Amino acid sequence: MSLPILYRKRIIPDECIALKDDEILYIDDEIIVTKWNVLNPRTDFTHGYSCYFLSKNIKVSKFLKEDGSLHYWYCDIIEYSYDTNTNSYTFTDLLADVIIYPDGKLRVVDLDEIAVALERKLLSERELEVALRTLDSLLNMIYEGDFDYLKSKVEQFEN
User: What's the pTM?
Assistant: First the structure.
């Protein structure tokens, strides 16, 4: 079977783009691991690796600087759908994100976007529930020291 096509769907701004340059390094029923370069040139990081944890609604990405050093870990709260006809996954970003810096500091971001999306009726009540429950679960994993497991799934596929 050929590798699937991956799409990133954002609510704010409203867009859905094919991640045509992302290289799928591994795929099974639980995870998809990719290697990628930034879509738009940046000075703070240039490339990285991501692991989509399908049953957890989490994408964990390792953002790397040009020299290969860690910029930070970025965790997206996501939902996905799979289309058998087109062999494609669409990953919807549910807005809330967690950034973990190399020094261990943690930052939860984009919660204001959830409020905007609710106000504009861009996010359903069910999507809000998934986002909040998943964010809580992810934060508990981080606080309890279980984030290393998520990181290891990304790092085992680094070249």
Answer: 0.95
